[in-house]
Amino acid sequence: MIAQFECPQRSWRSPSSLQPSKPRSVSPIRKPRNYDPTLHLVTIDLDQSQQPSPVHRLPPEVVTEIFLQYIPHYPHRPRLRDFEESPLALTGICGRWRKIALSSPILWKAVEIAESAYTTDEDRLTQLIKMFLNRSGSSTLSIELAGPARNYLVGAILPYMNRVEHFKTSATQSILAALEGKLTEVITLEISGYTTGFGASYPVALLKNTSKVQFLSLDSISLISREMHISLQGAVPWNQLHSLALTSFAFQTCYRILQYTPNLSFCWLEIPANASTNTGSIWLPHLKALVLEISLPPLPDVFLDMFTLPALERLQTETHLLQWNLRDQLQGLLERSRYGLKELRIVAESTVMKPQMVLDDLQSIVPHMEVVDYKPTSSKLAWPERLA
To answer: Compositional bias (Polar residues) spans (predicted)?
Structure first.
């Protein structure tokens, strides 16, 4: 009999002591990982003999509802090439979920074509836009062209404009001309103009065929053109607007526009420096929320006196007005209001002092008042939701 020897590396036994071992059960072999070069994601296919996880037994309708909670709520938009909160990320989890995501048009009805997505390969980006929007089927759309819009990007979305409900873009005159007559289904429209040369005039908005628009934001846009025979009153269907934001307009122009908008419930005004209040009164019977963004120097102390807002519930302004007898102006505004102001929000500027006595005085006449040390960076037309 051969004795057993022990060593640090391995154990030696005599041949007679060796017994045949029982066959070991071999676990099912999984399929190798598959690399999808188009999405730069790794997908794993599980062996069909394995018992599926409970999550894989969910009906496609339930999975789609879960997907909707991941992406931004419509009409907010995920970025075209950003996988964070994008339906593109849902196509790389597993084969079944990829199939569900690609066959759910509701996931592909909103997109932001961000400036960071602009590449020198215009054809490739155009194909990506079309691929994304084709997956939306016949759904209504929400599209944003972020950053300086380019003509070829506008050309890529033009075939889909008959389904666009919410649209945001920056625009030159040529882009506005390309969009003329294409905004017939748009409900929310945000346009900021930019010029191609120093000292050039603002582009002229061509918005006559916007019969469904209810929420409108205009920044650095001209609404009058003798050459194009466009008058201020006929430039936009003003009387159907519910929300309006005006930036970089002369106050006299703002005043004239507000004479044509009796049905507004929300209004955002950027008041320029040295705005004259010798224009008359502004009566908006249905306005519930008013935001005043004020430029330097401060406005005259009778500025709020021109407003008659019987339904006003919420007002946002800046600390500049604290130095111009805001309490008396606000008191007069409240006397002309039917419901009474419920909320006053004051946006603080670091260079402007906030007199505590004035704030305490205002607190006594407004049920809720807050002072915030920042300016909102969100869309101007998102404020009706935030102030609701």
So the answer is: 11-24
Nearest Cα neighbor of 214 from 145, 156, 182, 166 is 166
Predicted structure pTM score? 0.77
Cα(156)–Cα(345) distance, integer angstroms: 42
3-state class percentages of the chain: helix first, strand second, coil last, to nearest 5? 30, 20, 50
Q: Which residue intervals of the chain are DSSP H helices? A: 60-70, 95-102, 122-134, 151-157, 173-179, 232-235, 251-258, 326-335, 356-363, 383-386
Separate counts of helices (H) and strands (E) for the chain: 10, 17
- The parts of the chain modelled with pLDDT lower than 50 are 1-44, 46, 49, 117-118, 199, 387-388
CATH number of 260-388: 3.80.10
Identify the CA nearest to 383 among candidates 350, 329, 347.
347
Domain borders along the chain are 260-388
